[in-house]
């Protein structure tokens, strides 16, 4: 009789640990943000179709980022409005990136428009539209658009993983393992 009670208690503890481990995996999934590399520049003259086809094949989430790689002093990336995108207007961008290794964080759902800083390149279809999916997690997003040297995505992932690991370790000690 005592053996069956002990087994039941052991199974209960194992069940709790397994549940907490699954919760930890969900937490890691929740804060995971990806970085997408965009090799920016004229490639065979048909970039808008290539860039936009690439974008349509990916699922962008709030907190993900785009890493634009290009030759500095020969090209740049402009974040622009839809109207400026459609007309290749480079005069008043929302933001301008020129360092050749530019990171843009996708801070909210909806479309983001990018064009080359060289109007003639934009007219040759060096432009991109990225559509970010809506946040369905019922949590408010505090992620802001960042400059090219920001590390908000990495720090939020680290905090989420560290918190999940701490919860797992604490629960293990509380359950007597």
Verbal overview:
- The chain is α+β, with helices and mostly antiparallel strands and 177 residues long.
- It folds into two domains: 1-31 and 154-177; 34-146, Sandwich (Immunoglobulin-like).
- It contains five helices and seven strands, in the order αβαββαβββαβα.
- It has a four-stranded antiparallel sheet with strand order 4-3-6-7. Strands 1-2-5 form a three-stranded mixed sheet, with no helix packed on it.
- Strand 1 (35-39), helix 2 (47-56) and strand 2 form a beta-alpha-beta unit.
- Helix 1 (2-31) runs antiparallel to helix 5 (152-174).
- The longest helix has 30 residues, at 2-31.
- The chain is elongated, with a radius of gyration of 23 Å.
- The chain starts with a helix and ends with a helix.
- The model is unreliable at 140-159 (pLDDT under 50).
List keywords for this structure.
177 residues; alpha+beta; Immunoglobulin-like; 2 domains; 5 helices; 7 strands; 42% helix
CATH topology of the largest domain: Immunoglobulin-like
**Average pLDDT over all residues:** 75
Unreliable stretches covering 5 or more consecutive residues = 140-159
Overall geometry comes to elongated
- Determine and state the CATH class of the largest domain: Mainly Beta
Level-2 CATH architecture of the largest domain: Sandwich
